[in-house]
Every structure is written in structure tokens, then in C-alpha cells.
Design brief:
The complex is a heterodimer of chains A (569) and B (184). Chain A has 569 residues and is α+β, with helices and mostly antiparallel strands. Chain A is built from 13 helices and 23 strands. In chain A, strands 4, 11, 12, 14, 15, 18 and 21 form a seven-stranded antiparallel sheet that branches. The model of chain A has no long low-confidence stretch (mean pLDDT 97). Chain B has 184 residues and is mainly α. The longest helix of chain B has 22 residues. The two termini of chain B are 29 Å apart. About 11% of the residues of chain B have low confidence. Classes of the chains: A alpha+beta (569), B mainly alpha (184). At the A-B interface, helix 7, strand 13 and helix 11 of A face helix 3, helix 5, helix 6, helix 7 and strand 1 of B. Strand 13 of chain A pairs antiparallel with strand 1 of chain B.
Amino acid sequence: MANLNIRSKQERTYQAIVIGSGISGGWAAKELCDLGVKTLMLERGRNVEHVKDYPTTNMLPYEFEHRGQIPEDIKKENPVVSRCYAFREDAMHFFVKDTEHPYVQEKPFDWIRGYQVGGKSLLWARQVQRWSDFDFEGPARDGFAVDWPIRYKDIAPWYSHVEKFAGVSGNKDGLAHLPDGEFLPGYELNVVEKYFQEQLKKHYGNDRHMISSRCAHIHGNADYYAQQGRTLCQNRNLCQRGCPFGGYFSSNSSTIPWALKTGNLTMRPDAIVHSIIYDEEKGKATGVRIIDRLTKETEEFYADVIFLNAAALNSNLVLLNSTSNRFPNGLGNDSGLLGKYVAFHNYRARVSAEYEGYSEYATSGGRPTSGYFPRFRNVYKQETDFLRGYAAGFSAGRGVRPNTEGIGMDLKNNLLNPDQYGPWYVGSHMMGETIPKESNYVALDPNLKDEWGMPQLRISVDYDDNDEKMVKDYIEQMTEMFDKAGFTNIRSSDSKQAAGLDIHEMGGVRMGNDPKTSLLNANHQLHAVPNVYVTDGASMTSTSTQNPSLTYMAFAARAAHHAVAESKK
Amino acid sequence: MNRRIALRHLALISGGLALIPSCDFSSDDILAAYEKLKVTASQKTLLGSISDTIIPAGEIKGALDIEVPDFILVMVNDCMDTSNQELFTQGLAAFPNYVKSATGKKFDALSSKEKEELILAGTKLEGEENKALSYFLNTTKRFTIQGYMASEYIQTEIIPYSLIPGEYNGAVLISDLQKPRING
């Protein structure tokens, strides 16, 4: 393979290298650059510049040839990504196609990826609920995985730090298990959602809550966000196209341009990381070897500290592929647990219903979020025959539809004057915690390689009995709550979707106190190679129920400050 | 998208000559723009008449005025699997006979009312022998509605689509709404 190391080593040397430009890599780079660290950001995909590279962002529905639908040929060639709700004509250019980046499914696993600057931060659902000690203490209390080496008090100030900058809207709900944060004004729940809140209070006292979901959208304090070149969310609900207002948080709209402005950030897109280079004499990592996506030539970059934020499973892949005499089974893998204890979120079940009340009301305008049910199962003590619990999304809405039964002028008049207000629709979907297990793992395929000669990832991750019980309980409990609230026509479904489609895969490089049973310490450093930090989903010891991105952001910011403090010792 | 438009123009300008060199100029050329369907020019014209019966012109333009038949064929060609494409084209091919056996006339010779009744009845046909025809008519109706409502004309001139729908109001009295909005 050709070698591009023609520039002097000095020219290819930085103080820090961040691998990955998604939500956690963006934060690591932003913090390092703010602290004066000369940082190189490596991204395997193409560059996507804020606004400039959002080709569909202002397109009107009729400008899409298939009105949003994905053509059959593309679906057939790419069955995995085609199952993702956001893979539509308006955002398909931000998703990895199955055919371009193959992997091996030992068990069905829908691996949804975004290979470009900004990664999946362009595409995420933007829900940002904090963890509490009910989550961090879960493994220790309930006897699974290993104890988290950190607690809420360690991460709380970093939640505040990232919330302020990213812009998080929410209400101070005063819930011990879903701590309040630094919130911009929350979004309003609608009349039926408020009604359901009251019904929960009436039937369940203070045990069950439904709140306006905290989301990473700018809903106030516009002057502060103007410094980032962002402005108020316009309620367009077209976020997956990239937002020209920067109304929601992404690496592209926020952390990356901010870091570039410091003058300390160098971007290197199209750089597929082959491995992290380990120097046995120095006993530390000294750099990163990459393969250029376009030329397929290799190049090396050097730095004192390396942040690995390639997204959960790809961070596993990079470490597994970083072998040396000292680490024949992957960098930092003395425990033999690298790639193991992978987990995800159980998103299989939904419950929906109708409500005949408030028939004189509808809604107008748009909002980027809806309701959220924090976990209520097994919070204070074990009370069911399954471990842990689930959060749930909740929303009510009411559309107006035309009568489409007729034909001719009647049909035309009906279409142009829609007047059929049905009952309110209410819907909920579960977000269950899954228990990390050694048998849920990723590994390198010994033979299969991708187009760039990188080993393909073998994924062996599945549901278990605990998940099945949880699906059943969610359906039972939500049905009961809907019934008590007077909702009718209650329907439930279990999609039995493969693991991965939740797009919340986590673990494999878990944190822990003991190097024998974990890979990372309390500061996100590899136990055995402390100048390598992993602060994305790979570092998760357990999954809890909250959408995880906010926690990755806080981890990345906290670890960046730790790395800088260490360098000054 | 550009390739399709180019092909379409080419087929129009040359009458299909460039693409099907052996064609008889007066014959019914297969339209190259919908390569999976093998639909002829006269079938597309018929489809146009059907869609224009479903949503006719009046003070406000109808389906044919805004090229809904093209949208229907693009969607069937690109977004349907092979078996549904076959059902659709079989139904389209069977339609003239359906009209003839029901009325003894050609579709174009019928009054608007007769056309409407015939299409509506066709969408409700049951049984294996009518599967393709009713599938074709229901699909055509569904795509006519979609193509019409999600057209530039409707969404700019009749019911403007709002890219910025405004702040959320979670409790609006329906009686206070001027007109239901398509977006937000």
C-alpha cells in the first residue's frame, strides 16, 4: 500500500487527536480547542459544512421526486438502513448504505450509521434527559455488569456545562430520577397530554409522571446562541436534513465551527482510522494510522493524547484492530473483555389509542418534541420479575383529514377543504434498558475485509428473557394507564425489530474500577494506556433508559478537561 | 431526476425514434421514461383521462393540468415492487375492455358522470378476476390524490405549504381556526 508519510513528522504532529466528529467527538474537540490544545479531528466520511452541505434543507414537499419515499431499488439493495424511520428521500444522503459498508450479522442487528463530518448528530432525535444515581447505581444494586466508577455528582456539572452550550429546552420537573438541568423554556404539552398528566396523578399519585421531553433545541436566550451562529428553533421538524438556523444541536452547527474559530482545530475528513499506534518503549499511544478514503493510501498522525469517539461499535473496531506485541488482542485489552458486554435499548413495543374528549380542540404550529415518561419500574426497589425498567415516549395529536371516498368535483372539494377531525390520537413507544452480557459482543471477522482492507465487524447481539418480560410489562402497564385515562380503541404491537434499530448501541469498552473486569477508568482512560480516552457509547457500563447522547457529550467534555489537567502535571 | 427528464424529453422530441429505431411512427410507442412498466403513449393518455376524472379541472386546475399522470407513473415505476407493478400494468391494460363491456363505448366517449361512476365502481370490484383492475384504479386514485395535493401548484397557489409553521399551540378551538392547514 502506498504511503503518504511524505510530509515531515513534525507537520503531522498535534497535541491531541480526536477520532470521530459526531456528537461526542465534536465535544471533545471543542473543549480541547477552548483549552488551547492543537487538535486534529479525523473523520472517516466526507466533509459536511453547516448549511452549505444541507442540499435538501429548504426543499418543499413537491420538490422531492418521490415525495419523500425511498425508491424500491434502493430499499432492496439496502434493507438494513431502509428500516430506519429517518431514512427518507430528504435525508438519505446522510446515511451509510448497506452495500458500501458491509458487516457480519451473527444475529440480526440493524447497524445504522452516518459516515460524514457531524456523524449522526445531524440525524439524532435530539432528546436529552439526564441520568441520575438511580441509573449509575443500577449495576451495583441489581448485580449485573460492573459498578460504574462514577456517580451523578461527578457528571452533574458537566451535564450543566454541555446543556448550556448545546441549548436544552425543558421544564424543572423536580423528579429525583430525572434530574433537572440548565433549561431554556420548555415546550408546551397539548390539552390531551396535560389531561393524561392529571389522570396519572389521580390514579398513581406521585409514582408515575409524564413530562414535556427535554430536547436540544434553542427555545429562548437567542443572543447567547448567536455567538455560535445559531438561532431559535423554527419548529420546522425537518431536522434530519440539517438545520439552516442551527435550531437544534449538531456538531456541524455548534461544536465544530466553534472549535475551528479558536484556530486550534485541524479537520481531516476522508480519514478512515486503521489503528491507534502504540509505542512499547514509551508505554503509551503515540498516534493514529489512517487510510485515505479516496486514495486508499496510508498516513500517520501523532499526538500526546488520543480521543476515540468513532461511535460505539466503530470505537470497538478501532481498538480491536490496534494490535501490538504488548496488546495482541486489541489496544488496552488486558482483560479480554474488549468488544463484550454490548447492549442497546429495547424499542420494540408501542401502544396507541384514541380519546374522544376535548373534541372542540385541535393544535396549531409545530414543536420539536413531545411527552416523556421517565422510568417508573424498579426505581426505588426491585418490584417486578425483570430487572430495571423502561422509559417511554408519549404524544397526543389531532389531524384534520379530507374525506377521500368520492370522485370528481366532490372529491376535489373535500381535498381542498379538509374537515374531518377524528378523535385525538395518543401514542407511546417503549425505551427499555437492556442488560449488558458477555455473550452480546462484537469482534473482527478473521477473513472478511471492506473496500479499504479493514476487517469487517462481526456483531452478535440479541434480546434476552429480561427484554421479553419488559415488552410484556410495558404493554400491560401502558394499556392499563390508557384505560384508566378513558382512552379507547387501545392497540399494542411488538415490532420484534432487530437490536440496533434503536440506534442506541453501547458498550464493549466499558468503564469500571477494576482493570480485570473493565477497559476504562473513571476518567475514560484505557486502564492500560492512559493517554487514550474513549468517551462515546462504547464506554457505557450499562444503558439505563434515557437517550444517551447527552451523557456522551458530558463524558467527552469532562474527559477533555481531565486530559488537559494531566498534561500540566 | 435529470436523467429521467432528459429521457422524457428525448422520447417526446423524437417520438421514441432515437430509442426504438425500428418503430413505426404511427404505432403506439413504449415510453422509455418509465423503463420498468412498458407503458405506451396511448396508455399514458388514458391514465391522464382517468386521473382527470378523479380530480377534474374547474376554477382550480385539475390533475391533468399539473401532470399528475407523470407522477403516477414515476411512483409506480420507482417505488413499487415488481409484483405490484405487474398488477398495475395488467389493470391498466384491462381497463379499456372493462369500459367496453360495461358501457359498449370507449372511455373518452363517456360523459363525466359515466366516467366517474365507472371508476368508482371499479375501485370497489372484488374477486380474483378483478384484482388487477381494482388494484390499478385504487393505486391511480391514491397517487392522483398524492400527486395533486403535493404539487407545486396546490402548495404555492391554493394552500401554501409553510416551511415554518409557527409556535405550537396545544389547545386551539377548532371554531377559531380560519381554515385547516396542511402543515402545522
